[in-house]
Amino acid sequence: MKVVLCMVWLPFKQVGKEMMKNVYVVMWLCALTLCGSCAAPWEKKSGNGLVLHTDFCWKTTPVKQQGDSQWCWMYAMLATIETDRLLLGDSVHLSVPYPMRGYLADATKVCYLSRGKKEISDRGMAPTALHLIAENGLVSYDAYRVQQVHGYRHLLQQLAQRARYSHSLEELNSRTTRLFDETLGPTPTAVYFAGVQYTPIEFAHSVCKPGSYISLTSFTHHPFGTSFILELPDNVRHDSFLNMPIQSLMDTIISTLQSGHAVCWEGDISEPGFSFEKGIADVPPLQRKASQALRQRAFACRQTTDDHCMALVGMAHDKAGRRYFIAKNSWGTANPYGGFMYLSEDYVRLKTIAVTLLAE
After folding, report:
1. pTM over 0.85
2. Do the beta carbons of residue 76 and residue 264 sit within 8 Å?
3. 29-67 pLDDT per residue, tens
4. C-alpha–C-alpha distance, residues 326 and 54, integer Å
5. How sure is the predictor about 2, in pLDDT bands with cuts at 50, 70 and 90?
6. What residues are paired with 191 via a beta bridge?
7. How far apart are CA 255 and CA 2, in angstroms?
8. Which of 1, 211, 332, 344 could form a disulfide with 65 if both were Cys (CB 3.0 to 4.6 A apart)?
9. Number of helices and strands in the chain (H, E)
10. The pLDDT of residue 47
11. Cα-Cα end-to-end distance for the chain
12. Distance (Å, rounded) from C-alpha 228 to C-alpha 222?
């Protein structure tokens, strides 16, 4: 699969050519000022003595802290979109709580209407995030910025109580709106970007045109070259993933990154070789150059599970020439790389569940 540049420019309403030039220059300068380059130097020594040389690392917005939420899939997908837009010259910094508020409000209604049989969950995958972006819209990070990093588990419990004890949808909607306003803050009704006003839906469709991203996977219990619904608890919208051999998937990830785009990665982090504290994820020597069959066995016996989601934004190598993918995590900055991680190519080959990236 060849991944090409997807030109999705922000639409400027009623702006002349000269003004557009000025706006573009301002946006470009803002992008450089806001994000600079990725917080990974050319050479970095990890806590276990591993010396890593950065080949390239694309611009990103600052590393976030998801706290006790399960929102890594939204953080990672928005981080992927942000980097893609930054490399086009747009200073886009997006709010995670805004689309998640709509997601939780809908889940609370379903819980109420099902009389509690459908539990309220904040789990999902990258394609789930794309659905929410298209349906609920987006606003900028500063327009809807939540300071808290804890209390999201309690928020779900409070939503479940309201679903249980409300007597009508009107009462439920009123009670959940008050709860969201108290915990997350009131939502903005408009987005102002470069002097232009948008609705959240208009803004979302500008920075992430529907259908511009595709989700890929690599498992042998379905034929290659076909799309299938990945059988995972977090695949709440029953999204389909294009299935391809693992080498093709790895080549696609690498070519996408080399062409100047980010990749939203979903995979297993339950292995001992994954350490946020060290900033490294690797596999034992016997699991290197994992075959398709080894991947499938690990998935079939539930050794490879869908645990976490991060944005891949660059590549690196060690002194032995082994390649690593630079991942932007959402667990804060308290590790040797300021919140970034280095995933070995062997780890990604074995432990990837799926990726989402710009389509052709």
Report:
1. yes
2. yes
3. 343 334 444 444 456 655 567 899 999 999 999 999 999
4. 8
5. very low
6. 198
7. 8
8. 332
9. 10, 14
10. 53
11. 8
12. 7
As beta bridge partners, residue 340 has 328
Distance CA 176, CA 317 (A): 49
- Give the Cα separation of 135 and 65 in Å (integer): 25
- Please name every residue paired with 213 in a beta bridge, in sequence order, or none if there are none: 358
What is d(CA 247, CA 254) in angstroms, rounded to the nearest whole number?
A: 11
- Give 356's contacts (C-beta < 8 A, 6+ positions apart): 77, 80, 126, 127, 130, 213, 214, 215, 216, 263, 264, 266
CA dist list (Å): 307 to 69, 289, 331: 13, 22, 14
Rounded to the nearest angstrom, the gap between the alpha carbon of residue 36 and the centroid of all alpha carbons in its chain is: 20
Residues 266, 239: Cα–Cα separation, whole Å? 14
Q: Are 230 and 206 in contact (CB under 8 A)?
A: no
Bridge partners (DSSP) of residue 274 are 281
For the chain, give the number of residues.
360
Q: Which of 346, 360, 340, 127 is nearest to 250 (CA)?
A: 346
Residue in the block written with tokens 């939780």: 104
How far from the centroid of its chain's Cα atoms is residue 41's Cα? Answer: 23
Query: How far is the C-alpha of 324 from the C-alpha of 347, rounded, in Å?
Result: 9
Coil, strand or helix: which one is 160? helix
Name the least confident of 75-84, 147-156, 211-220, 294-303. Answer: 147-156
Structure tokens at 196: 């232009």
Please choose, from the candidates 103, 159, 95, the residue with its C-alpha nearest in 3D space to the C-alpha of residue 131: 103
